[in-house]
Specification:
This protein has 342 residues and is of the alpha+beta class. It contains 11 helices and 11 strands.
């Protein structure tokens, strides 16, 4: 659509289109108009005080060389061109960002790198690139490594003074989610189970609650200081989206580090611990059905209920964009699975 509009407008201005030119050091970015590649080369070289016969012209985005009119006329207005002198190279703006990110953990250079990325933002017009670059800049200006409250006060803003470390907060976050699964399971049993076996189900669920207490309500799930087997993140606090319930992984490569800043901590609240086999539509209904349908010599299996409600065997950490809320039946469990021989 943009290309068609450019062609339409060019009918009224003699084929002229506006472009931007700059040198390899990004010290100057100057607007020029041209109707062909030769005119761009001559005007650009004049503006940048370069010899047009010794210049190589490349596209700023990816470093593609432009050498003739045929290719040049396919490029949209406002394309940015880099004019290179002999011996100079340009690999593209994306590579500049990559190089900056590769130095991300070099704390002594964070301010310098952030300044370079701000320079990119100031001269950039494409909304998509501005969004991406801004995210990288925000990442640079975080404080991931600090753990104690006194070392990163901003991270703890609005939180109870009892929390002394980031891991304290994240452990409580995991506990809150797991407790909520217990409470909603209890409420569903109270609401849907027949009176004659409701109390038996609640007593079994209470056994699960005591087991939860012994496991500290799986607080280790979000705790970067926990053992590798117990936590969902790496030792720096990075979490990866595990993808929707019906996929093996996240094809959008969502990641987040809630330990990095207050903003990321708050955004992490939008990530879901999703039940692969749904809790309210499948797990609890089958558990209730088992109580109604089991034989007298059979017992209900609290271990399976516990595993499906509270453990990573049936939980996936999912970014909100990958969380599928539509009703579903996996068909992976039946009421009989909750029964064991007494």
């Amino acid at each position: 659509m943009t290309f068609i509009l450019d062609r339409f407008l060019s009918l009224f201005n003699g084929g002229m289109k506006a472009y931007k030119v700059q040198d390899v050091k990004r010290e100057q970015r100057i607007g020029v108009t041209a109707k062909n590649f030769k005119e761009l080369l001559e005007k650009g070289a004049e503006k940048l005080k370069l010899n047009p016969e010794e210049v190589t012209v490349v596209i700023e985005d990816d470093g593609t060389a432009v050498t003739d009119d045929k290719f040049f006329k396919k490029l949209p207005a406002q394309t940015v061109f880099v004019f290179l002198k002999k011996g100079e190279t340009w690999r593209g703006a994306g590579v500049l960002i990559h190089d900056a990110l590769s130095k991300l953990y070099c704390a002594t250079r964070k301010n310098e790198i952030a300044s370079q990325i701000r320079d990119l933002l100031i001269t950039e017009n494409a909304p998509e690139k501005i969004h991406i670059i801004s995210q990288y800049l925000e990442l640079l200006e975080t404080n991931t490594s600090s753990e104690k409250r006194q070392d990163h006060e901003d991270w703890f803003e609005g939180l109870n003074k009892k929390y002394k470390t980031k891991s304290d907060v994240m452990r409580h976050s995991a506990q809150t989610r797991i407790r909520s699964y217990y409470m909603t399971a209890k409420e569903q049993i109270e609401r849907e189970a027949d009176k004659e076996y409701k109390q038996d189900l609640l007593d079994l669920l209470e056994e699960g609650f005591q087991k939860l207490k012994k496991s500290d309500f799986h607080s280790s799930y979000f705790d970067r200081t926990a053992s590798e087997k117990q936590r969902m993140c790496d030792k720096q606090g990075w979490f990866r989206c595990e993808g929707p319930f019906d996929m093996d992984n996240c094809d959008r490569f969502h990641t987040i580090n809630p330990y990095a800043s207050k903003g990321y901590r708050q955004l992490f609240g939008l990530w879901n611990l999703d039940h692969i086999i749904e809790k309210s539509r499948e797990v609890i209904p089958r558990f209730i059905e088992a109580a109604r349908s089991k034989q007298k010599h059979q017992d209900l299996n609290i271990d399976l209920l516990y595993k499906l409600l509270f453990t990573r065997e049936n939980l996936k950490l999912v970014q909100v964009g990958c969380h599928k809320k539509a009703a579903r039946e996996s068909g992976k469990i039946t009421w009989n699975d909750f029964c064991s021989e007494g």
